[in-house]
Amino acid sequence: MRRALAFTAILVAASASARVTEAQVRVATVEKPAVALDLYGWVSPRLTVTAGSIETPDETNVRFSVPQARFGAVATLGRWGRMQTELDLAPLGGATLSPPTVLDAYVVLTPHRSRFWGIDVTLGRFRVPISRQNLIQPFGLQTPELGKYILDTPNRQMGGMLGVDFLDREIRLLAGVFNGGWGAVQPPPSDPPKSFVIDKPWLLYAGRIELQPLGPAPSFEGDVRPVSQRRKPVLLIGASVLRTSATYEVLQGGGPASFGSGDFTTHAVGADVGFWYAGASFHGEFYYRVQDGRLAVPSSSPPTSPPTSPPTSKVRSLAAHAQLGYFLPFGLLREHLEIALQGQYVESDGGYPNIVFAGGANVFFDRGHRLKTQLFYENTSIVWGDPIRSHRVMLQATAGF
């Protein structure tokens, strides 16, 4: 009875407010068979001050938002299985109320696990293994937001994935097949405007290899390990690849009129490295994507103006990301104050290079690093003749369990 009351109280509190996959609140256990239910979640309210943009170069905007509000549950089903669900509650904090969105809903089956090697099979909706940043929870980020290039990745998809690891996860191989329907690059601006609609998605294939020769990497980007463990260096090296195709239709003028149809194939590769030692951390990623597309214009209804690109085109995207963090080695500051710097470069054919520099501080109020405040300044330059710069200051608080 006491356990049931505790479970109900946690659910009510989580629905009113809103961690990572390593859940922190155990609400139920059964010894035979060995079953456990854990809950996790976090909420991140933010105040953002933005100055300058392409549309309004001389305008300053102040905005309150809740970009992150998550609640999840993990059920451990003995040695051989685990299921996880995660809800995005952030739409509830917007100007227009929206229902929660299901982000994760998957099952992990482990037919074999030993000290030397193991096998995992994941089925459902989960993260596509294309980037280290895409695989960790936002709760563990050093900066308030993911790298801008992550918007150019498929994030979560429905599918299945096989994972094989060796030597207590020092070597990890992932191979997945997903529904697809991602990867169409929008056509350049035109009058009347045009937009892509995916007509028939094909499967998306993704693979990743991770090497952790010095031990398991932290689930945070920063070195938030206990101080007594920080003298042990940790290294992570990863590489990812994906491929997908789809047929699409181009709509013109914002209405049902079809400009044409075609197909495309997208390939992407990524590489990342992470290093943690003595309160310092480094994270770097490289991402390259190529889309080969073919546009078929129907002869029975020719467009009012010629297409802005040839019938066959190739669109390339390139991104580089580097990030440094350091806990100041003075007294209590070594566990509670982290300085972080970030640089990004994003460019694609038909667009303008984006250069981003950001820096700020993370203040942790508890040794478990579940309650923190982030203050960051971000400068974005769009190289378009004379660079167009925008400035953004973000003050974000995060509380999680």
Rounded mean pLDDT score:
80
- CATH superfamily, by name, is Porin
- What is the succession of H and E elements? HEEEEEEHEEEEEEEHEEEE
Q: What portion of residues belong to β-strands? A: over 45%
Strands of the largest sheet, in order across it? 2-3-4-5-6-7-8-9-10-11-12-13-14-15-16-17
Give the helix level as a range of percent.
under 10%
What structural class do the secondary elements suggest?
A: mainly beta
For the record, the CATH architecture stands as Beta Barrel
Please, could you describe this protein's structure?
By secondary structure, the protein is mainly β. The protein has one domain: Porin (Beta Barrel). Helix content is 6%, strand content 57%. It is built from three helices and 17 strands. It has a 16-stranded antiparallel barrel with strand order 2-3-4-5-6-7-8-9-10-11-12-13-14-15-16-17. A hairpin with a 4-residue loop joins β7 and β8. The protein is globular, with a radius of gyration of 23 Å. The chain starts with a helix and ends with a strand. The N terminus is likely disordered.
Task: Give the structure's gist in a few sentences.
By secondary structure, this protein is mainly beta. It has helices at 2-16, 132-135, 333-336, and strands at residues 25-30, 35-51, 60-77, 81-88, 101-113, 117-127, 156-166, 171-178, 194-211, 234-252, 258-277, 280-296, 312-327, 337-348, 354-364, 371-382, 388-400. A 16-stranded antiparallel barrel has the order 2-3-4-5-6-7-8-9-10-11-12-13-14-15-16-17.
